[in-house]
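Why should sequence recovery work at all? Because a backbone constrains its sequence more than one might expect. Tight turns favour small or flexible residues, buried strands favour hydrophobic ones, and helices have their own preferences. The token representation captures these environments compactly. In the example below, the structure is given first.
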């Protein structure tokens, strides 16, 4: 028989599944003789040939009775029908009697896939002739093997249309199997992956999988692909890069011009406002020994004997490549190199500069030689509040940054995304905010691992348009490491549609990849994955104020009826509205009466205080709600009422300070939605200054809380 190359045929697939303890049809090749069938027994004959994926379409499947000579003749006829496919043999299989339900799907389709970016995956969906139609109503389940146990997969399957049908949990159906049999099947798939890995299998498609007469899942068909070669994992940069980037003791900039307003000049002006002493700053400027009061190096070669922690290259792409190559060639000069330029590995790179840069770094590291850690290219810079270090090429007049150290770390593939968040949320306490660019060397997973070693980081927020090759699984693993240490990871992934993928590719040269796969992997690792930027921003604001906890019961208090109604619509399922006990309701009623609102306000949740409520009424009601079962309180302040003082800073500060004190004393989360125009920006500013998360709408506040409540 021919040995298939790159093709996993059905006979071999059956063997791998059986070795893992899974039920497969009795089978054997007609050419081998000694088949496990009785004369006249119902069987299926399948013509197995190299790269023959769809046997039925080519007349290579026949149902009949077991009779050796007739089967030999039919196998020979099948071989003649597929002359372009090297013949492997005629596979005789048991005709499995399986259970069906009229009008409902009972066949499954499963793929075991070694994804180059995500690792081994099991994809489970509805099989059969109408698989595509069912998939639209019941999307397939995706289980990353490294991040999912069979027990967790069983929970997902029991909630899926297919699992509910198999278990008799659809209306008017009977059980075809039980959870114990399904768990044993899933455990077998997990074991099978180990065998597939050893054999160099990259894909095994099982379609259909049916339930036999005893309710055992049985793969009737299985084909796949083989590839024993595997790309080596990228060599990791020196771990010292993290501190050299965030807390450099010495910094060098190349590309500073005499012209004001240029990129390098803006970077230098921002850096000089940091806590770094002037003696730690140098420039690379050929032909000058001193420029703008700073010492100059003639070239990067001088860094070989006087290295820097961080080198910022604000140079055109070709010169940027030359500098990195020179550093590698001389074996030293800078622990971390930050690349500002685009045109390296993106749509503007027509000369393969990016490939040369990656090849240079890989070659040196694999040979055990020194190479710098490279951040970027296409990087906008970073902000490190501990040193008040700002290397962004945005002038202070456009983006004034306050050094407010805190527990948040922000990374963004898009520099514009990063700086707009810094502009909109100046109150956030940050450990670092970094534009990571195209991730040619230091990748998203490296940053997450760096944050995991940093005790100051409690929450990581990230905007990504794509993952560097093989970095999706590494990012998921780093996310799990952070979660295991009690840290939070909040992600927004751009480039989800075909148009978004194209835009991401043209912008950063990133592979956007398949969003459903990425989302499944990252959520399974414990990341909060925002579907909208507004939700990301809202969750970030909450986590900036409250890094710990996961509120699922929420109390709403507002002075506007529409907010009360709209909020109630958003509270459902696991993310629910809090309830008051009888005694708490009585206390709230007494509070309402004491504040002169009796007859206007009902003592129930959501609490509509009406426009007649002043600060005293809000604070009194907040004390009651914070003492209830509510884990979070969202305060709606429509500021147009004359009962609220929105103009006097002292009065606003006193109100905001007391709200903050009440929240801290209760250990609960409290946020504020101020629905009003630019006239009330001062009001929002003072509330934020008191440490409260502030939102433009109640919906925004609740969407952020809902995302946090969904965290695994």
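From this structural description, the recovered sequence reads:
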């Amino acid at each position: 028989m021919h040995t298939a190359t790159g093709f996993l045929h059905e006979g071999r697939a059956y063997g791998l599944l059986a070795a893992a303890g899974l039920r497969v049809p009795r089978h054997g090749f007609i050419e081998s003789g000694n088949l496990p069938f009785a004369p006249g027994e119902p069987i299926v004959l399948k013509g197995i040939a190299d790269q023959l994926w769809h046997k039925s379409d080519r007349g290579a499947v026949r149902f009949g009775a077991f009779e050796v000579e007739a089967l030999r003749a039919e196998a020979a006829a099948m071989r003649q029908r597929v002359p372009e496919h090297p013949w492997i043999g005629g596979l005789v299989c048991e005709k499995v009697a399986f259970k069906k339900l009229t009008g409902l799907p009972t066949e499954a389709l499963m793929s075991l896939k070694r994804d180059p970016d995500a690792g081994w995956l099991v994809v489970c969906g509805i099989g059969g002739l109408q698989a595509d139609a069912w998939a639209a109503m019941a999307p397939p389940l995706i289980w990353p093997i490294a991040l999912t146990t069979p027990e967790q997969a069983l929970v997902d399957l029991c909630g899926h249309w297919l699992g509910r049908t198999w278990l008799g949990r659809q209306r008017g159906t009977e059980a075809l199997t039980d959870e114990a049999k399904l768990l044993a099947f899933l455990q077998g798939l997990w074991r099978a992956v180990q065998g597939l890995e050893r054999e160099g299998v990259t894909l095994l498609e099982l379609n259909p999988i049916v339930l036999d007469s005893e309710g055992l899942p049985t793969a009737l068909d299985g084909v796949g692909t083989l590839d024993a070669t595997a790309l080596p994992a990228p060599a990791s940069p020196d771990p010292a890069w993290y501190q050299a980037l965030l807390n450099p003791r010495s910094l060098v900039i190349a590309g500073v011009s005499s012209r004001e307003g240029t990129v390098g000049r803006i970077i230098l002006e921002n850096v000089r406002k940091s806590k770094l002493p002037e003696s730690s700053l140098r420039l690379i400027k050929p032909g000058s020994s001193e420029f703008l009061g700073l010492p100059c190096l003639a070239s990067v070669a001088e860094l070989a004997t006087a290295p820097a922690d961080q080198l910022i290259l604000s140079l055109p792409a070709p010169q940027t490549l030359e500098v990195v190559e020179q550093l590698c060639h001389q074996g030293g000069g800078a622990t971390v190199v930050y690349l500002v330029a685009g045109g390296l590995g993106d749509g503007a790179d027509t000369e393969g500069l990016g490939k040369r840069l990656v090849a240079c770094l890989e070659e040196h590291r694999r040979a055990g030689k020194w190479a710098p850690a490279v951040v970027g290219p296409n990087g906008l810079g970073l902000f490190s509040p501990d040193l008040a270090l700002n290397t962004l090429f945005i002038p202070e007049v456009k983006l004034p940054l306050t050094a407010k150290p805190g527990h948040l770390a922000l990374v963004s593939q898009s520099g514009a995304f990063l700086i707009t968040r810094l502009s909109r949320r100046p109150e956030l306490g940050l450990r670092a905010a970094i534009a990571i660019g195209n991730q040619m060397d230091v990748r998203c997973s490296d940053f997450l691992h760096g944050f995991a070693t940093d005790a100051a980081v409690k929450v990581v927020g990230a905007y990504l348009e794509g993952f560097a090759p093989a970095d999706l699984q590494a990012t998921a693993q780093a996310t799990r490491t952070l979660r295991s240490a009690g840290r939070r990871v909040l992600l927004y992934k751009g480039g989800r549609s075909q148009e978004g993928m194209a835009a991401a590719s043209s912008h950063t040269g990133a592979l956007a990849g398949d969003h459903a796969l990425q989302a499944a992997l990252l959520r399974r690792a414990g990341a909060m994955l925002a579907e909208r930027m507004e939700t990301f921003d809202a969750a970030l604001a909450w986590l900036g104020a409250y890094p710990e906890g996961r509120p699922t019961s929420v109390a709403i208090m507002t002075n506007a009826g529409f907010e009360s109604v709209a909020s109630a619509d958003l509270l459902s399922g696991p993310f629910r509205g809090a309830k008051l006990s009888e005694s708490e309701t009585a206390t709230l009623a007494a509070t309402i009466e004491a504040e002169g609102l009796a007859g206007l306000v009902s003592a129930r949740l959501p609490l509509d205080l009406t426009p007649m409520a002043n600060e005293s009424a809000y604070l009194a009601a907040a004390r009651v709600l914070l003492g209830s079962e509510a884990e979070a309180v969202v305060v709606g302040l429509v500021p147009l009422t004359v009962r609220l003082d929105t103009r006097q800073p002292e009065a606003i500060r006193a109100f905001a300070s007391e709200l903050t004190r009440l929240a801290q004393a209760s250990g609960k989360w409290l946020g504020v939605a101020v629905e009003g125009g630019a006239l009330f920006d001062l009001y929002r500013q003072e509330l934020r200054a008191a440490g409260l998360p502030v939102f433009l709408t109640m919906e925004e506040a609740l969407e952020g809380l809902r995302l946090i409540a969904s965290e695994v």
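A few observations help interpret the result. DSSP finds 22 helices and 31 strands in the chain.
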